[in-house]
Design brief:
- With 179 residues, the chain is an all-alpha fold.
- It has a domain at 17-141.
- The termini are far apart.
- The protein contains four helices and no strands.
- 77% of the residues lie in helices and 0% in strands.
């Protein structure tokens, strides 16, 4: 066994400058080969990263352009919304001018369609009120018929008066004529 121990003992020798240069050359060659393999292995990934970065840049520009368009569209929408509100108010005023029987409190709505609906309801309401008034007028007309022109100048009716009342009436009329 002593022979085996002699062979397995580490030997620490300092390498010579020549050995050191050879080892250094081998390490440099191995480093370059490893770096070449890493470059070769990562080349498709680097190309993909470059392509993705270009896509991100384009998408970022598109997003910024769309933000500008959105802001412009939002401004235009708010302007159109305000113009529509003014148009609805003008439509209400026009309806009230053309229909004097309608009042502002029965014409309402925030849209043209809502105003049209309230105009239809108001028309029905005004029609019902007219019918009611006409029916009332007809009923009253039958009760109080006044003939056209001045009434005939006749004396008071003496029907149903007693003789004494008739004499008193005659005396009063004679007195009025004297005056």
């Amino acid at each position: 066994m002593a022979k085996d121990q002699e062979n397995t003992e580490p030997i620490n020798e300092t390498p010579t400058a020549e050995d050191y240069a050879v080892i250094k050359l081998e390490l440099e060659t191995e480093r370059q080969r490893a770096q070449g393999l890493v470059t070769e292995a990562t080349m498709p990934l680097q190309e993909r990263i470059t392509a993705l970065e270009a896509e991100v840049s384009v998408k970022t520009q598109d997003i910024e352009a769309m933000k500008g368009q959105l802001a412009e569209a939002s401004t235009n929408f708010e302007g159109a919304k305000a113009a529509y509100a003014y148009a609805v108010e003008d439509f209400k005023k026009l309806v009230l001018q053309t229909n004097p029987l309608f009042t502002p409190d029965i014409i309402g709505g925030d849209t043209i369609d809502a105003v049209k609906t309230s105009v239809e309801k108001a028309g029905v309401l005004v029609g019902r009120v007219k019918e009611g008034l006409e029916a009332q007028a007809k009923a009253l007309a039958g009760l109080t018929t006044v003939p056209a022109g001045a009434p005939a100048r006749t004396g008071a009716s003496t029907e149903g008066m007693s003789t004494k009342e008739k004499i008193n009436l005659g005396l009063e009329q004679a007195k009025k004529k004297k005056e």
